[in-house]
Amino acid sequence: MTDISHDCGWLRKHIEAFLDDELSNDAKERFENHAATCRTCRAEVEQAQRILTQLRQLPALECPDDVVERVRETALPDDGPNRIREWFARAWAPSLRPALATITVAAIVLTSIWVGRVNRTTIDPEEVAEAQAALKWTLAYVGEVSERSGKAVRDEAIRNGLIRPVQRALESIHQGSDVEPETNGG
Amino acid sequence: MNKSLGIVRRRVIEVLLIIAVVLPFTFSNAIAAPDDEYKKLPGYVDFDAMGIFGNAEPKVEVFLRGPLLKMAIEALRHEDPELVDVLAGIQLVRVHVFDSLDYDDMKDKTESAVRTLEKKGWELAVRVREHDESITIHMLPGKNDETLEGLVVMVVEGDDEAVFVNIVGTLNVKDIGRIVNAFDDDIRIHISDDDDDDDDEEAAKRRKKRAYNP
Protein backbone atom coordinates (compact mmCIF):
# COMPACT_ATOMS: atom_id res chain seq x y z
CA MET A 1 0.00 0.00 0.00
CA THR A 2 1.49 3.32 -1.03
CA ASP A 3 1.42 6.15 1.47
CA ILE A 4 -0.40 8.93 -0.43
CA SER A 5 0.74 11.82 1.77
CA HIS A 6 4.32 10.56 1.72
CA ASP A 7 4.19 10.36 -2.11
CA CYS A 8 2.81 13.93 -2.28
CA GLY A 9 5.98 15.19 -0.61
CA TRP A 10 8.16 13.02 -2.84
CA LEU A 11 6.37 14.25 -5.97
CA ARG A 12 6.80 17.93 -5.02
CA LYS A 13 10.53 17.37 -4.61
CA HIS A 14 10.75 15.82 -8.06
CA ILE A 15 8.50 18.09 -10.12
CA GLU A 16 11.44 19.96 -11.61
CA ALA A 17 13.31 16.77 -12.51
CA PHE A 18 10.13 15.36 -14.05
CA LEU A 19 9.58 18.42 -16.21
CA ASP A 20 13.22 18.34 -17.32
CA ASP A 21 12.82 14.62 -18.13
CA GLU A 22 15.62 13.71 -15.76
CA LEU A 23 13.83 11.01 -13.76
CA SER A 24 14.66 7.34 -14.06
CA ASN A 25 11.99 5.12 -15.60
CA ASP A 26 10.91 3.78 -12.19
CA ALA A 27 10.75 7.22 -10.64
CA LYS A 28 8.88 8.55 -13.64
CA GLU A 29 6.35 5.74 -13.35
CA ARG A 30 5.91 6.40 -9.62
CA PHE A 31 5.52 10.12 -10.35
CA GLU A 32 2.92 9.59 -13.06
CA ASN A 33 0.98 7.02 -11.02
CA HIS A 34 0.73 9.36 -8.08
CA ALA A 35 -0.16 12.39 -10.22
CA ALA A 36 -2.93 10.34 -11.84
CA THR A 37 -4.52 9.55 -8.48
CA CYS A 38 -3.85 12.75 -6.51
CA ARG A 39 -5.74 15.80 -7.76
CA THR A 40 -3.69 18.30 -5.70
CA CYS A 41 -0.41 17.03 -6.97
CA ARG A 42 -1.70 16.88 -10.53
CA ALA A 43 -2.75 20.52 -10.26
CA GLU A 44 0.72 21.41 -8.99
CA VAL A 45 2.38 19.60 -11.84
CA GLU A 46 0.14 21.28 -14.38
CA GLN A 47 0.84 24.68 -12.88
CA ALA A 48 4.57 24.06 -12.91
CA GLN A 49 4.30 22.92 -16.52
CA ARG A 50 2.44 26.13 -17.46
CA ILE A 51 5.06 28.28 -15.76
CA LEU A 52 7.83 26.47 -17.52
CA THR A 53 6.12 26.83 -20.90
CA GLN A 54 5.59 30.55 -20.33
CA LEU A 55 9.21 31.01 -19.21
CA ARG A 56 10.44 29.28 -22.32
CA GLN A 57 8.39 31.63 -24.44
CA LEU A 58 10.08 34.71 -22.95
CA PRO A 59 12.70 36.38 -25.16
CA ALA A 60 16.35 35.74 -24.25
CA LEU A 61 17.85 38.64 -22.35
CA GLU A 62 21.29 40.03 -22.98
CA CYS A 63 23.41 41.54 -20.29
CA PRO A 64 24.24 45.18 -21.18
CA ASP A 65 27.93 45.79 -21.94
CA ASP A 66 28.33 48.38 -19.18
CA VAL A 67 27.09 45.87 -16.60
CA VAL A 68 29.58 43.28 -17.88
CA GLU A 69 32.35 45.88 -17.68
CA ARG A 70 31.44 46.82 -14.10
CA VAL A 71 31.35 43.18 -13.02
CA ARG A 72 34.76 42.65 -14.61
CA GLU A 73 36.20 45.69 -12.82
CA THR A 74 34.85 44.46 -9.51
CA ALA A 75 36.09 40.89 -9.98
CA LEU A 76 39.56 41.78 -11.37
CA PRO A 77 41.25 44.56 -9.45
CA ASP A 78 43.62 46.90 -11.31
CA ASP A 79 46.77 45.41 -9.92
CA GLY A 80 45.86 41.85 -11.05
CA PRO A 81 47.91 41.78 -14.26
CA ASN A 82 50.88 43.33 -12.50
CA ARG A 83 50.78 40.69 -9.82
CA ILE A 84 50.69 37.97 -12.45
CA ARG A 85 53.62 39.57 -14.29
CA GLU A 86 55.62 39.78 -11.05
CA TRP A 87 54.96 36.13 -10.31
CA PHE A 88 56.16 35.11 -13.76
CA ALA A 89 59.23 37.33 -13.45
CA ARG A 90 60.14 35.50 -10.26
CA ALA A 91 59.20 32.01 -11.44
CA TRP A 92 60.94 32.28 -14.82
CA ALA A 93 64.21 33.12 -13.23
CA PRO A 94 67.73 32.27 -14.59
CA SER A 95 67.19 28.67 -13.52
CA LEU A 96 65.03 28.28 -16.63
CA ARG A 97 67.72 29.46 -19.00
CA PRO A 98 69.19 26.01 -19.82
CA ALA A 99 65.78 24.70 -20.82
CA LEU A 100 65.00 27.80 -22.86
CA ALA A 101 68.41 27.56 -24.52
CA THR A 102 67.73 23.90 -25.42
CA ILE A 103 64.40 24.82 -26.97
CA THR A 104 65.96 27.69 -28.91
CA VAL A 105 68.74 25.44 -30.28
CA ALA A 106 66.20 22.76 -31.22
CA ALA A 107 64.06 25.36 -32.96
CA ILE A 108 67.08 26.69 -34.90
CA VAL A 109 68.16 23.18 -35.97
CA LEU A 110 64.64 22.24 -37.05
CA THR A 111 64.16 25.48 -38.92
CA SER A 112 67.45 24.88 -40.74
CA ILE A 113 66.33 21.38 -41.70
CA TRP A 114 63.00 22.70 -42.86
CA VAL A 115 64.55 25.57 -44.81
CA GLY A 116 67.01 23.08 -46.32
CA ARG A 117 64.13 20.98 -47.50
CA VAL A 118 62.31 23.96 -48.93
CA ASN A 119 65.45 24.98 -50.76
CA ARG A 120 65.54 21.54 -52.34
CA THR A 121 62.80 22.86 -54.61
CA THR A 122 65.54 24.64 -56.56
CA ILE A 123 66.29 21.45 -58.43
CA ASP A 124 69.20 20.88 -60.77
CA PRO A 125 68.12 21.78 -64.34
CA GLU A 126 69.46 18.43 -65.54
CA GLU A 127 67.14 16.68 -63.11
CA VAL A 128 64.23 18.75 -64.42
CA ALA A 129 65.16 17.88 -68.02
CA GLU A 130 65.22 14.19 -67.14
CA ALA A 131 61.89 14.49 -65.36
CA GLN A 132 60.46 16.30 -68.35
CA ALA A 133 61.68 13.57 -70.70
CA ALA A 134 60.18 10.91 -68.44
CA LEU A 135 56.89 12.79 -68.30
CA LYS A 136 56.79 13.21 -72.06
CA TRP A 137 57.60 9.60 -72.52
CA THR A 138 54.90 8.47 -70.13
CA LEU A 139 52.25 10.58 -71.83
CA ALA A 140 53.42 9.39 -75.24
CA TYR A 141 53.27 5.79 -74.04
CA VAL A 142 49.73 6.25 -72.70
CA GLY A 143 48.85 7.84 -76.05
CA GLU A 144 50.33 4.93 -77.96
CA VAL A 145 48.46 2.38 -75.81
CA SER A 146 45.20 4.31 -76.24
CA GLU A 147 45.70 4.37 -79.98
CA ARG A 148 46.53 0.67 -80.11
CA SER A 149 43.58 -0.29 -77.96
CA GLY A 150 41.31 2.04 -79.96
CA LYS A 151 42.39 0.30 -83.14
CA ALA A 152 41.84 -3.11 -81.57
CA VAL A 153 38.34 -2.13 -80.45
CA ARG A 154 37.57 -0.80 -83.95
CA ASP A 155 39.00 -3.93 -85.57
CA GLU A 156 36.90 -6.11 -83.31
CA ALA A 157 33.76 -4.12 -84.12
CA ILE A 158 34.47 -4.37 -87.85
CA ARG A 159 35.21 -8.09 -87.52
CA ASN A 160 31.98 -8.82 -85.63
CA GLY A 161 29.76 -6.33 -87.39
CA LEU A 162 30.88 -6.58 -90.98
CA ILE A 163 33.43 -9.21 -91.92
CA ARG A 164 31.84 -12.19 -90.13
CA PRO A 165 28.26 -11.52 -91.35
CA VAL A 166 29.52 -11.04 -94.92
CA GLN A 167 31.56 -14.25 -94.64
CA ARG A 168 28.51 -16.14 -93.43
CA ALA A 169 26.39 -14.66 -96.22
CA LEU A 170 28.94 -15.65 -98.84
CA GLU A 171 29.17 -19.15 -97.39
CA SER A 172 25.42 -19.56 -97.48
CA ILE A 173 25.29 -18.34 -101.11
CA HIS A 174 28.16 -20.63 -102.02
CA GLN A 175 26.39 -23.62 -100.51
CA GLY A 176 23.22 -22.72 -102.41
CA SER A 177 21.34 -22.53 -99.15
CA ASP A 178 18.02 -20.63 -98.69
CA VAL A 179 19.27 -19.16 -95.42
CA GLU A 180 19.01 -15.39 -95.39
CA PRO A 181 22.36 -13.67 -94.80
CA GLU A 182 22.72 -12.13 -91.35
CA THR A 183 22.85 -8.34 -91.50
CA ASN A 184 23.68 -7.73 -87.85
CA GLY A 185 21.36 -4.78 -87.44
CA GLY A 186 22.31 -3.03 -90.69
CA MET B 1 56.44 30.85 -0.32
CA ASN B 2 60.04 30.28 -1.47
CA LYS B 3 59.58 26.52 -1.16
CA SER B 4 56.46 26.54 -3.34
CA LEU B 5 58.21 28.82 -5.85
CA GLY B 6 61.06 26.30 -6.07
CA ILE B 7 58.62 23.46 -6.75
CA VAL B 8 56.93 25.49 -9.47
CA ARG B 9 60.31 26.26 -11.09
CA ARG B 10 61.31 22.62 -11.04
CA ARG B 11 57.99 21.60 -12.61
CA VAL B 12 58.32 24.25 -15.31
CA ILE B 13 61.89 23.11 -16.11
CA GLU B 14 60.73 19.52 -16.33
CA VAL B 15 57.92 20.44 -18.72
CA LEU B 16 60.27 22.52 -20.88
CA LEU B 17 62.84 19.73 -21.05
CA ILE B 18 60.14 17.27 -22.09
CA ILE B 19 59.02 19.69 -24.77
CA ALA B 20 62.63 20.13 -25.94
CA VAL B 21 63.03 16.36 -26.30
CA VAL B 22 59.64 15.70 -27.88
CA LEU B 23 59.64 18.72 -30.21
CA PRO B 24 62.31 17.46 -32.66
CA PHE B 25 60.46 14.15 -33.12
CA THR B 26 57.16 15.93 -33.63
CA PHE B 27 58.72 18.31 -36.15
CA SER B 28 60.62 15.59 -37.95
CA ASN B 29 57.37 13.67 -38.34
CA ALA B 30 55.64 16.77 -39.61
CA ILE B 31 58.44 17.33 -42.12
CA ALA B 32 58.57 13.69 -43.17
CA ALA B 33 54.81 13.31 -43.45
CA PRO B 34 54.48 14.93 -46.91
CA ASP B 35 56.71 12.13 -48.31
CA ASP B 36 53.78 9.78 -48.00
CA GLU B 37 51.03 12.27 -48.63
CA TYR B 38 50.66 11.20 -52.26
CA LYS B 39 49.48 7.77 -51.08
CA LYS B 40 46.36 9.42 -49.71
CA LEU B 41 45.39 10.88 -53.08
CA PRO B 42 42.26 9.17 -54.42
CA GLY B 43 43.81 8.38 -57.79
CA TYR B 44 46.88 6.69 -56.28
CA VAL B 45 47.08 2.95 -56.91
CA ASP B 46 49.38 0.89 -54.76
CA PHE B 47 50.50 -1.76 -57.22
CA ASP B 48 52.85 -3.21 -54.60
CA ALA B 49 50.01 -3.76 -52.15
CA MET B 50 48.07 -5.52 -54.91
CA GLY B 51 50.94 -7.96 -55.19
CA ILE B 52 51.35 -7.46 -58.93
CA PHE B 53 55.09 -7.00 -58.91
CA GLY B 54 56.02 -9.60 -56.31
CA ASN B 55 59.79 -9.67 -56.02
CA ALA B 56 60.35 -8.63 -59.63
CA GLU B 57 62.58 -5.63 -60.15
CA PRO B 58 61.34 -3.16 -62.72
CA LYS B 59 63.51 -2.55 -65.74
CA VAL B 60 62.48 1.07 -65.69
CA GLU B 61 60.76 3.01 -62.96
CA VAL B 62 59.48 6.54 -63.31
CA PHE B 63 58.33 8.32 -60.18
CA LEU B 64 57.56 12.01 -60.57
CA ARG B 65 55.83 14.14 -58.00
CA GLY B 66 56.02 17.35 -56.02
CA PRO B 67 58.19 20.24 -57.13
CA LEU B 68 60.13 18.14 -59.65
CA LEU B 69 56.93 17.16 -61.46
CA LYS B 70 55.64 20.73 -61.32
CA MET B 71 58.90 22.01 -62.78
CA ALA B 72 58.92 19.33 -65.47
CA ILE B 73 55.40 20.37 -66.47
CA GLU B 74 56.29 24.04 -66.30
CA ALA B 75 59.32 23.39 -68.50
CA LEU B 76 56.90 22.43 -71.28
CA ARG B 77 55.53 25.97 -71.40
CA HIS B 78 57.75 27.11 -74.23
CA GLU B 79 56.68 24.07 -76.29
CA ASP B 80 52.98 24.06 -75.53
CA PRO B 81 51.61 26.63 -73.07
CA GLU B 82 48.07 25.21 -73.24
CA LEU B 83 49.29 21.76 -72.32
CA VAL B 84 50.87 23.13 -69.13
CA ASP B 85 47.44 24.26 -67.94
CA VAL B 86 45.95 20.89 -68.87
CA LEU B 87 48.64 19.02 -66.92
CA ALA B 88 48.63 21.39 -63.94
CA GLY B 89 46.35 19.10 -61.93
CA ILE B 90 48.69 16.09 -62.13
CA GLN B 91 50.30 15.34 -58.79
CA LEU B 92 52.05 12.05 -59.40
CA VAL B 93 53.26 10.03 -62.36
CA ARG B 94 54.43 6.47 -61.84
CA VAL B 95 55.59 3.99 -64.43
CA HIS B 96 56.92 0.48 -63.85
CA VAL B 97 58.27 -1.49 -66.76
CA PHE B 98 59.12 -5.18 -66.37
CA ASP B 99 60.62 -7.58 -68.86
CA SER B 100 61.16 -11.36 -68.98
CA LEU B 101 57.93 -12.25 -67.29
CA ASP B 102 55.70 -15.23 -66.87
CA TYR B 103 52.84 -14.00 -69.06
CA ASP B 104 50.12 -16.17 -67.50
CA ASP B 105 51.14 -15.21 -63.97
CA MET B 106 51.27 -11.52 -64.82
CA LYS B 107 47.94 -11.72 -66.65
CA ASP B 108 46.30 -13.34 -63.60
CA LYS B 109 47.72 -10.70 -61.29
CA THR B 110 46.55 -7.96 -63.61
CA GLU B 111 43.07 -9.48 -63.69
CA SER B 112 43.04 -9.50 -59.91
CA ALA B 113 44.19 -5.86 -59.91
CA VAL B 114 41.36 -4.99 -62.30
CA ARG B 115 38.83 -6.48 -59.89
CA THR B 116 40.35 -4.56 -56.98
CA LEU B 117 40.28 -1.31 -58.93
CA GLU B 118 36.69 -1.77 -59.98
CA LYS B 119 35.67 -2.50 -56.39
CA LYS B 120 37.23 0.83 -55.45
CA GLY B 121 35.17 2.73 -58.00
CA TRP B 122 37.59 2.80 -60.91
CA GLU B 123 35.86 2.59 -64.25
CA LEU B 124 37.12 0.48 -67.07
CA ALA B 125 37.66 2.65 -70.13
CA VAL B 126 39.30 0.14 -72.46
CA ARG B 127 40.08 -3.55 -72.30
CA VAL B 128 41.81 -5.37 -75.12
CA ARG B 129 42.79 -9.03 -75.08
CA GLU B 130 44.45 -10.12 -78.27
CA HIS B 131 46.66 -13.15 -78.65
CA ASP B 132 49.27 -12.65 -75.95
CA GLU B 133 48.56 -9.01 -75.33
CA SER B 134 46.37 -7.56 -72.64
CA ILE B 135 45.61 -3.87 -72.25
CA THR B 136 43.38 -2.26 -69.64
CA ILE B 137 42.82 1.42 -69.07
CA HIS B 138 40.94 2.49 -65.96
CA MET B 139 39.84 5.93 -64.89
CA LEU B 140 38.70 7.11 -61.47
CA PRO B 141 35.83 9.57 -61.88
CA GLY B 142 36.10 12.81 -59.95
CA LYS B 143 33.47 14.58 -57.89
CA ASN B 144 31.69 15.70 -61.02
CA ASP B 145 31.29 14.19 -64.45
CA GLU B 146 33.89 16.47 -65.94
CA THR B 147 36.94 15.43 -63.96
CA LEU B 148 39.03 12.37 -63.24
CA GLU B 149 41.12 11.74 -60.16
CA GLY B 150 43.42 9.20 -61.74
CA LEU B 151 44.32 7.01 -64.65
CA VAL B 152 45.75 3.50 -64.64
CA VAL B 153 47.15 1.77 -67.69
CA MET B 154 48.19 -1.87 -67.44
CA VAL B 155 49.76 -3.54 -70.45
CA VAL B 156 51.07 -7.11 -70.58
CA GLU B 157 52.72 -8.02 -73.85
CA GLY B 158 53.48 -11.70 -73.94
CA ASP B 159 56.51 -12.74 -71.95
CA ASP B 160 58.36 -9.69 -73.18
CA GLU B 161 57.08 -6.85 -71.21
CA ALA B 162 54.56 -5.49 -68.75
CA VAL B 163 53.99 -1.81 -68.19
CA PHE B 164 52.03 -0.21 -65.37
CA VAL B 165 51.24 3.48 -65.43
CA ASN B 166 49.46 5.47 -62.75
CA ILE B 167 48.77 9.14 -63.31
CA VAL B 168 47.35 10.76 -60.19
CA GLY B 169 45.66 14.12 -59.96
CA THR B 170 42.70 16.04 -61.22
CA LEU B 171 42.33 15.82 -64.96
CA ASN B 172 39.58 17.26 -67.06
CA VAL B 173 37.82 14.58 -69.08
CA LYS B 174 37.72 16.76 -72.16
CA ASP B 175 41.50 17.16 -71.95
CA ILE B 176 42.31 13.45 -71.94
CA GLY B 177 42.56 13.31 -75.72
CA ARG B 178 44.80 16.35 -75.64
CA ILE B 179 47.05 14.72 -73.03
CA VAL B 180 47.41 11.34 -74.70
CA ASN B 181 48.12 12.89 -78.08
CA ALA B 182 50.54 15.49 -76.77
CA PHE B 183 53.85 13.78 -77.49
CA ASP B 184 53.08 11.03 -79.89
CA ASP B 185 54.73 12.75 -82.82
CA ASP B 186 57.76 13.86 -80.82
CA ILE B 187 58.58 10.33 -79.78
CA ARG B 188 58.07 8.95 -83.29
CA ILE B 189 60.24 11.62 -84.88
CA HIS B 190 62.92 10.93 -82.31
CA ILE B 191 62.76 7.22 -83.00
CA SER B 192 62.69 7.48 -86.77
CA ASP B 193 65.91 9.53 -86.69
CA ASP B 194 67.72 6.48 -85.34
CA ASP B 195 66.03 3.67 -87.23
CA ASP B 196 66.08 3.52 -91.00
CA ASP B 197 63.91 0.44 -91.33
CA ASP B 198 60.75 1.69 -89.69
CA ASP B 199 58.60 -1.18 -90.86
CA ASP B 200 60.90 -3.82 -89.51
CA GLU B 201 59.31 -5.57 -86.53
CA GLU B 202 62.59 -6.06 -84.66
CA ALA B 203 63.45 -2.39 -85.10
CA ALA B 204 60.06 -1.47 -83.71
CA LYS B 205 60.72 -3.61 -80.63
CA ARG B 206 64.16 -2.08 -80.17
CA ARG B 207 62.73 1.42 -80.42
CA LYS B 208 60.10 0.70 -77.89
CA LYS B 209 62.63 -0.60 -75.42
CA ARG B 210 64.95 2.30 -75.85
CA ALA B 211 62.11 4.73 -75.61
CA TYR B 212 61.27 3.39 -72.16
CA ASN B 213 64.54 4.87 -71.00
CA PRO B 214 63.91 8.53 -71.54
Beta strands of chain A, count? 0
Sheet having the most strands of chain B: 6 strands, antiparallel
User: What is the quaternary state of this protein?
Assistant: heterodimer
SSE string of chain A: HHHHHHH
State which percent range the strand residues of chain B make up.
25-35%
Return the average pLDDT of chain B rounded to an integer.
Answer: 77
Low-confidence stretches of chain B: 188-199, 203-214
Secondary-structure content class of chain A: mainly alpha
Task: Provide the gyration radius of chain A in Å.
Answer: 45 Å
How many strands in all of chain B?
A: 6
**SSE string of chain B, helices as H and strands as E:** HHEHHEHEEEEHHH
Number of helices of chain A: 7
- Helix % of chain B is 40-55%
Shape assignment of chain B:
elongated
Residue-averaged pLDDT of chain A, rounded?
A: 76
Q: Estimate the helix proportion of chain A, in percent.
A: over 70%
List unreliable stretches of 5+ residues of chain A: none
What does this structure look like?
The complex is a heterodimer of chains A (186) and B (214). By secondary structure, chain A is an all-alpha fold. Among the domains of chain A are: 4-57, no CATH class; 125-186, no CATH class. Helices cover 77% and strands 0% of the residues of chain A. The model of chain A has no long low-confidence stretch (mean pLDDT 76). Chain B is of the alpha+beta class and 214 residues long. In chain B, strands 1-2-6-5-4-3 form a 6-stranded antiparallel sheet. Chain B is elongated and about 85 Å long. The chains are: A mainly alpha (186), B alpha+beta (214). Chains A and B meet through α6 and α7 of A and α1, α3, β3, β5 and β6 of B.
SSE order and pairing:
The complex is a heterodimer of chains A (186) and B (214).
Chain A: H1 4-19, H2 25-37, H3 39-57, H4 65-75, H5 80-91, H6 97-119, H7 125-174
Helix pairs in contact in A: 1-2, 1-3, 2-3
Chain B: H1 2-32, H2 34-37, E1 60-65, H3 66-74, H4 81-87, E2 90-99, H5 103-119, E3 123-130, E4 133-141, E5 147-157, E6 161-172, H6 176-180, H7 184-194, H8 201-211
Antiparallel strand pairs in B: 1-2, 2-6, 3-4, 4-5, 5-6
